[in-house]
Amino acid sequence: MHPAPAAYVPVLQVRPFPHTGNVSYRRSGCQFHVFSAVRMQGHGSLEQLQHTRKADFQIRCESKWCWSSRCHEDSKCRRCRNPGNTKRCRVLVTRTQMMKSLKEQGKYHQLQVVFESLIRDGHKPSVECYTVLLSGMIAQKRIESAQDILERMETEGVRPDAVSFNIIINGFCHEGNMIGAQRVFQQMKDKGCTPTTSTYNTLIKGYGLIGKPEEAMQLLFQMASGTEAKANLRTYNMLINAWCKKNCLEEGWDVIGMMRSHGISPDAVSFNTLAKAYADQGNVSKAESVIQQMQNAYLRPNEYTYGIVISGLCAQGRIERALALAERMNSQGVPLNIVIFNTLIKGYANLLQPSGIDKVLQLLETYGLKPDVQSFSIIMNAWSSSGLVDEAKAILQRMQQAQVKPDGTTYAILAKGYVRSQKPAEAEALIQEMASQGLLPNVVMFTTVISGWCSAARMDDALRVYKSMLNYNVTPNLKTFQTLIWGFSEAKQPHRAEEIFRQMKEQGILPDHKTKELIIEAWRGVGCSEETTGNLTR
Questions:
Q1: By the 8 A CB rule, do 306 and 329 touch?
Q2: What is the pLDDT of residues 191-212, one digit of tens each?
Q3: If DSSP states are collapsed to H, E and C, what string results for 358-379?
Q4: Any idea what DSSP says for residue 206?
């Protein structure tokens, strides 16, 4: 906190502001407003700003000790609007920090309120302040509003810098709108703002996302011919990723050679990108050979590198080979983690090999690790999908004995198994069990149970679970309504199917083509297809 000068410290002249608890120093109508660092970073910052009285921001700008807001006689702060002043306005600094804090918390609307308060109180936002605002707008996908702010900056005499332009370019790239991104890029150059390496990297990433690595390469050539922006490791890694996304791995290797020729050594990310591309193509042998390529380049493969290859081997059913690679990974000093073990568990579970699963679980404990909720859920999902619901239930009990708390996904997996085994009552009982564990059943859980009763042609029970869902304040989704409509269709009750259809629309859920087809099928099932068409077009 800024210390008060001696002339300001008499007890009767020092008081907290209403609503804030911050300290005010007053003298002959002039006062400071001191924002504490704790308050600035806390959740109450915006409320403090909104509820502080207007008079609390009125001070004399020419006061000897004034470092803040505006004066009674002038509506604008002279300190932050004077380009020759080397001392920054403390209010501008404080509220910019407040905006950064709100951005990190995802409170974008409040961020904009703070920004507008600066202008309302006579301050001139800095480039940094505008940059934070632009970041918040792009995070909300408000690109057009962000462009308006860019124009507003120029109107207010604040020249946008490269960071400001890069933020908007990045917004267009994430939307796949490279025409818009290139338009802002050209505008940036027309305004005399030199593109940076980050600008080019953002555009390269954008072209990679839409599957146009050729365009990305043209940007690399532009960088090579210029003098300001130089390609860095990130530039080349994004180019490798762009080629790999298009399954052009030879071109990816060409980029490796190109970066070496420019004196930039590839890193683990460069090789991992290529390894993953090979694994995604099912060419696990090539993916495994990347490990050797890394070692030849004096790079140490990390857990992600090994994880890519192990996952690929497990997907092909080559679990023993994957297990051997995991042991090799450990012998080379790369620590095994729970993700690797869960991948191995999934490999054995998909092959329905309980002995293999037990072997991995024992190995896991040997390395001082414990199975987590995902470990058990993977096994349960394999058993449930194969109709071995009793075995899946046994895994749940084993999980509880290991003091691993099940989550909503765990119960949903078991409920799905019961439904597939035509045991909807057991699936419904899990809802109560979840509640007893302090877990709120979600829409997926309820819809799964409803589908079980619909498959058993017990629509009264299905509706009972639907009403229970509403009592839990869980909002049904499109899949929930489609399940009920299908159930009534199978029960030859098209009128009730159409009643559900109306309820769905009343709740603001728009029917898709599949939903309408279900209604048509419900009427066709009783030989009244014409009536169906008439009802749907009303």
A1: yes
A2: 999 999 999 999 999 999 999 9
A3: HHHHHHHHHCCCCCCHHHHHHH
A4: H
